[in-house]
Design goal:
Two copies of one chain form a homodimer.
Chain A lengths: L12 H7 L10 E6 L4 E3 L7 E7 L1 E8 L2 E9 L3 E2 L14 E4 L3 E7 H10 L1 H27 L2 H16 L13 H8 L3 H13 L3 E4 L2 E4 L2 H8 L3
Antiparallel strand pairs in A: 1-8, 2-7, 3-6, 3-8, 4-5, 4-7, 9-10
Helix pairs in contact in A: 4-5, 4-7, 5-6
Chain B binds a DNA duplex through helix 6.
Chain lengths: 228, 228
DNA sequence: CGAATCGTTGATGAGCTTCAAAACTCGTGG
DNA sequence: CCACGAGTTTTGAAGCTCATCAACGATTCG
């Protein structure tokens, strides 16, 4: 990632905001703010007003059905969420978004974002690629939820977290995630995830001390994510 | 849909092809052909060569894990598939695609499609919206697979098929789908889907005669898809 | 007409959820 | 410094949903 860049999107809107390449006019369409830990930023079903960019922190993007919850993905530094306001079918947010830690955010008005997209073709093209990547992940996760047992999905989840959040110097996953949330991300119950976690520990694939999860045998863990 | 248009994307590439608005130069990048019923058009894991547009017919887009299969979606008239070659992470198709009936197709070379996207901003923007819609559906389906019981997922599947393929004059779903495929689309086994189908019949929500599925009580069926 | 495929049904058990109750953690205040 | 209680973690047990296997009837097709 280049200096002054915030995210993986070349020509990303937020980068430009950060780099102040844009006219001051944008200020009327942008709102910076802080979300406290646990604060709900978007409520599923509410009318779409704009998109959010994460400067720093961590936000879970989740969907509910009845009293059950599934975490679709996490948006950390440089990521975007609430962008599904961009669609032709509905005018309400299809997901909820909740800060997992204190998170610094930037909100952009939907109309402004749309017009920007139409004018800034680089941005549009790169957002297109971003969406394609998301779709790729999304469809893979669909398959996993439908076809994989919980233990294997847990392996996928851990590897994904490792890839997205990296490791601390101590070598454990650089994210503070409640077991509840890990379960909701895996798509299973708290207890089941717990049991599978102990299995993985017994098989020496991971280890846990306190809140810290460490991947010991990445290769074997990854082999669980392969077919059959 | 306007006359001369093939799909829901304004400025869609295929429409332009069909309308012959483009220079003949394109012909070297386009290949029209027919896929027989049951013919596999894309094999998961093969290197990406381009994208496909459906003139007419029906193609299932599916993913495997071991010997199990999940149908992600169906691509019928005017739809696009294989577009996930467009991404930054992998150079192989993440999905398989198989014709469910005789299908008339158009293949576009990936490089050409990419350059076109960079030049044709209307196309890029509308593809962006299309991706956003797909993502919306995809994430909804993720939630369904994770949280809904099979019966409810079956209701979703039937309503979705009804929306995408419409009804025959007789009032039944205008698609010939094997129960195998319906099961793979629902994300459950053949037998389970069969049992749930009988339940829905007994509850007078649907009826089946031969291959024809008819939705009797759409409202109740839809209520199964609502939360809790 | 026989073979093969598909539809239908029952029995069984694995995998997972649910409920419930210990055991452990940690902050708070006596 | 310990006791207490609230919250979390861990474990056990029961039950439900769904997959799997197997068998038989129906339908298609050479």
């Amino acid at each position: 990632m280049k200096k002054g860049k915030c995210c993986d999107l070349e020509a990303c809107l937020m980068c430009r905001l950060a780099l102040k390449e844009w006219k001051p006019a944008i200020d009327s369409h942008r709102k910076n703010f802080l979300a406290k830990k646990g604060e709900q930023i978007i409520q599923e079903g509410e009318p779409v007003t704009g998109v959010y960019f994460v400067y720093s922190g961590n936000v879970k993007v989740h969907k509910k059905w009845g009293d059950k919850e599934l975490i679709i993905r996490f948006a950390n530094d440089g990521k975007i969420f609430g962008h599904r306001g961009l669609n032709t079918k509905t005018t309400v947010y299809p997901i909820s978004a909740t800060a997992l830690e204190e998170t610094s955010l930037c909100f952009i008005d939907l109309e402004f974002f749309k017009t920007t997209l139409k004018v800034n073709h680089d941005l549009a093209f790169n957002l297109l690629l971003f969406f394609a990547d998301e779709l790729l992940e999304s469809e893979k996760k669909m398959r996993n939820l439908a076809l994989m047992p919980v233990k294997n999905r847990l392996a996928v989840a851990l590897l994904q977290l490792s890839a997205q959040f990296g490791l601390t110097e101590a070598g454990s996953l650089n994210i503070a995630l409640s077991k509840q949330d890990l379960a909701a991300f895996t798509g299973a119950t708290y207890e089941t995830v717990f049991r599978m976690t102990t299995e993985l520990i017994n098989e020496q694939l991971i280890s846990i001390s306190g809140k810290n999860i460490r991947i010991i045998n990445e290769e074997k863990l990854r082999s669980l994510t392969q077919e059959s």
